[in-house]
Input
Amino acid sequence: MESCVDPSSPALKDDFVLFSKRCSYITLNKDAGDDSFVELNKRMESFIEANEVQNRHFYMALPPNVYVAVSEQLRRNCYSDKGNCQIIISMTETIGTEGRGGYFDDVGIIRDVMQNRLFAPALVTDDDCLTALDLMQLLALTTMERPGSFDAKDLRQEKARVLRLVPPLDIKNTMIGQFCESVDGRNPGYKDDDSVPQGSRCATFCASVAYVKNARWEGVPFILKSGKALDESKTEIRIQLKDTTDAMLRDTAHNQLIIRIQPNEAIRLKMNTKLPGLGLQTIATELDLTYQRTVSNPDIPEAYESLLLDAFSGDYSDSVSEQELEATWKIFTPLLHHLEGHEEIMPAKYTYGTGRKAQVAWRDSWLRISTDQ
Output
């Protein structure tokens, strides 16, 4: 390969050398069963680190008489079971700290919302934690196996079991941000609060990726996002489905199941539908179950209304157990200690009321996230 290409500059030459080292050639014998394709799979796996996501693309310039046989062997032996599937759990607010900067600076968005409201409880009593709707609870409810019953013991047991399967969050898959003054100047930035130290590194936005280490969710990234002073207040679960490996229609958007917790409670299914006619063009369509439009005068109780009723009646099915709380702390504590112990890690700045894009240089790489995925 190197003899056929003459890079025009030394920099390009160095890049080309690195690229060529990752290129390899392997002979496949389609008539020898799966052995050759198993060897190809081993070769591809040798290029990735442990737990690294690898998206694989196969360009098959083959004659029709062998295309089907080769594609079947590739599907059986070489398709990656990771990538191209993700679940986004978001809890965002349009307001800032609103005079609570002094308190918030000691807590930060990770403890205040992600660890507590997303995963953990609001109130604790001996063995039990009474909570409204938490971010980690959303993760547990999304990923847990079907409980034996709706009894509090069975529900909390399944939630604790799945949370124990979530490894600590990785600093390499995490980014933090801090809001500054709005464009029109009407809303102050986080450090404009007199109770906030001017050198504060407190995060008001955080996005991180969690994984559940079991057979059902292996390799599926759960993107956890929470922040203040953003462009929208919402709590939702967005499940982006995998692409089918043998899809007849190409270049279509992912199908998505969206569960809107608040506001405007709804369940929506976004899917690709063939456009009527003789062609094969598709359009994105949506099945929308918005409670306010589907049910006349729906009686949807407020979060703390349900919480207090459960507390008065002694129903712990929606509360968080000590085991769930312990598992949640194990997920977040290493990340919190790393952020607190490395003063060179600074939160990326985003404008009050936007927050759509933030980027931060970290370990010589750029991480880019968007709050409107």
Remarks:
- The two ends are 40 Å apart (CA to CA).
- DSSP finds ten helices and 14 strands in the chain.
- The mean pLDDT is 75.
